[in-house]
Design a protein that fits this description.
Shape: elongated
Number of strands: 17
CATH superfamily of the largest domain: Aldolase class I
Distance between the termini: 26 Å
Number of helices: 13
Largest sheet: 8 strands, mixed
Number of domains: 2
CATH topology of the largest domain: TIM Barrel
Structural class: alpha/beta
Order of helices and strands: HEHEHEHEHEEHEHHEHEHHEHEEEEHEEE
Length: 319
């Protein structure tokens, strides 16, 4: 898969933006970055699109900015000249697709039927936009039409809201979703960029779904772990379960039989999408400890971060 689309997959959400005034580009980009989404698709529905893309590309090189509603080769050229790094089309326009492929430009055409998917596969594409997602039949329709095709992933767009965000993202063939609820044109027109940031932050929080799963306490031996677990169980009345490397009291407390990462122990934080959580935390300056990665069925399910808080390491878990 193209590296740009891999980054989009890590981000999980692509804000779809309609800008009327180029001067709104920079504050909007800053609001999205502050909210945790350094990505946007600026649609060529207005005359401001090209200038807005250029402003953002120059001012915020960390922003993954693409052009949407691209209908012609001339619009592709204009978007690329301005600094767009990917192209999104509402339909499968062969002229646009063929030009982008010839010029090695990441392109995501829209599809709505199995026939569309097969045309995309003939072009060698592995990422397409599913549009209009809700109007076309929603997640159930996407599951049905995607079933025969293993070599392609989808970016549902159209009708995606905070309420149905996870429904789409939890489908394994969804690379990311496109949405405009956090960048509503009215919010932009009235320059409510604080609200844009708040809605973006809420979307990221819902996507990642961080929650405390258990507290791990380092012990030096089997006996110490058993003694501490028994003491905790006498207080909280949770069942004790003895394991190979630790003793659990309910699901909330883990007493390790040897020292795990962390001076005192660890805080196990669950997340809906561990790979997106890692990418998000890396943007904040945190990194994983590669030697602590744990996989199941070839997929990452747990890893420690290279940070301690109050003597406790942070342990990410795939929910």
């Amino acid at each position: 898969m193209n590296a740009i689309f891999e980054k989009i997959g890590q981000l999980g959400i692509v804000p779809v933006v309609v800008l009327e005034q180029p001067a709104d580009a920079e504050p909007l980009a800053q609001a999205l970055i502050n909210g945790g989404l350094p990505c946007m698709e600026i649609t060529f529905r207005t005359q401001a699109a090209k200038e807005a893309i250029g402003r953002i590309a120059r001012a915020y090189p960390q922003m993954l900015v693409g052009a949407g509603t691209v209908l012609t080769i001339d619009q592709v050229k204009a978007a690329r000249e301005a600094g767009a790094v990917f192209i999104v089309a509402p339909g499968l326009n062969k002229n646009v697709v063929e030009y982008c492929l010839k010029e090695s430009i990441p392109v995501m055409p829209g599809i709505a039927t199995p026939s569309d998917v097969e045309v995309a596969l003939e072009y060698g594409l592995d990422v397409v936009k599913f549009f209009p997602a809700e109007a076309a039949g929603g997640i159930d329709y996407l599951k049905a039409i995607s079933a025969p095709y293993r070599a392609i992933q989808f970016v549902p767009t159209g009708g995606i809201q905070h309420a149905n965000l996870l429904t789409y993202l939890k489908f394994p063939k969804t690379l990311a979703v496109g949405g405009s609820w956090m960048v509503n044109p009215e919010l932009i027109a009235t320059r409510q960029f604080d609200t844009v940031q708040k809605l973006t932050s809420e979307a990221v929080a819902t996507m990642l779904g961080f929650e405390l799963r258990h507290i791990g306490v380092n012990c030096g031996s089997d006996q110490e772990a058993q003694d501490r677990a028994t003491a905790m169980a006498s207080i909280v009345r949770f069942p004790v379960k003895d394991g190979t490397s630790s003793v659990f009291v309910g699901t909330a407390f883990e007493f390790t039989k040897k020292k795990f990462p962390g001076s005192h122990g660890h805080l196990a934080i669950g997340t809906h999408f561990i790979h997106r959580a890692i990418a998000y935390l890396e943007r904040l300056g945190y990194h994983v400890r590669p030697e602590t990665k744990s996989e199941k069925g070839g997929k990452l399910v747990a890893v420690y971060l290279d940070v301690e808080i109050g003597g406790f390491a942070i342990h990410l878990l795939q929910l």
